[in-house]
Write a structure and sequence with these properties.
By secondary structure, the chain is of the alpha/beta class. Helices cover about 50% and strands about 10% of the residues.
Length: about 220
């Protein structure tokens, strides 16, 4: 999947060095990027609006250490992947950042290579976060032998379908073809319309891609 397919995702950059902020903005051109200088500010930002991805520096303004805030960031947005970027973390520090239930998904070392950053961002957006949640739910269903008509299974199927639609529509210039999506996923047009409304409400796709979302939401 090309990185262009995940454009329009929202990325929260937690970095206090203006030079690195400019570097990340260059690498993430086309994404919706918000930048804060401290992890404390990141927590407040997440309370207001949950991003699709967090780019977290380790050494921050006001003496904060980014990795120390990972559990708190995950507590607010457990499904949001975190990429830690640091030039000071040793191997033990990197392993600690990647260990446990409330941990980061990736650690990249400074000086960062733009190609590497773009590849990891793409992988995090498409395979981690919501994609990882879907995989875990399906695994639990298999372990628990959940029947296909049970509410738990229906929820996982809806989440998996929405994740697939999200990856197809991010960065698209044309409105989604509801009929084509209904055929692709073997569901009704109304089901796809509800999926699109959910994605717009969660801020994961641009409302301009599906301007009917207001009417569909009101009808429900």
């Amino acid at each position: 999947m090309s990185v262009m397919n995940v454009r329009n995702a929202t990325i929260l950059v937690v970095e206090d060095d203006p030079q690195h902020v400019r570097l990340y903005n260059k690498a993430l051109r086309g994404f919706r990027v918000t930048t804060v200088a401290t992890a404390s500010a990141a927590l407040k930002e997440i309370e207001a609006s949950i991003p699709d991805l967090i780019l977290l520096d380790h050494i921050l303004a006001e003496g904060e250490k980014g990795t120390e805030f990972i559990p708190r960031l995950k507590a607010l947005a457990a499904h949001v992947p975190i990429i830690v970027i640091s030039g000071t973390l040793d191997i033990q520090g990197q392993l600690a950042a990647l260990s446990g239930p409330l941990s980061a998904q990736y650690v990249l070392r400074k000086p960062i290579q733009l190609d590497e950053l773009e590849q990891v961002v793409e992988r995090a957006l498409t395979e981690c976060g919501l994609g990882e949640t879907v995989a875990m739910l399906k695994s639990l269903e298999r372990a628990e032998k959940v029947e296909s008509n049970e509410p738990e299974r229906l929820f996982a199927e809806r989440l998996a379908r929405q994740h697939a639609i999200l990856n197809q529509t991010r960065g698209a210039s044309e409105r989604p073809n509801v009929s084509a999506l209904a055929r692709q996923f073997n569901v009704s047009r109304k089901t796809i319309q509800r999926d699109l409304v959910d994605l717009v409400k969660r801020g994961q796709i641009d409302p301009e891609l599906y301007p009917e979302w207001n009417a569909s939401s009101a009808a429900d």
